[in-house]
Amino acid sequence: MSLFSGLSRPMKAAGLALVGVAVIAAVIGGITLTSGGGDSDTATPPGTTPTTSDGATPPSSQPSGTPPASSPPASSAPPSSAPASSAPPASQPGQTGQPGPGQPGGDQQASHKWVTVRVYNNSLIQGLAERAANDFRASGWNVTEVGPHQGKLPKSAAYFRPGTDEEAAAKALALEFGIEAQPRFEGIQNAAPGVIVILTKDYDENDKSGGS
Question: Where do Low complexity bias regions lie (predicted)?
Answer without folding.
Answer: 40-64, 72-96
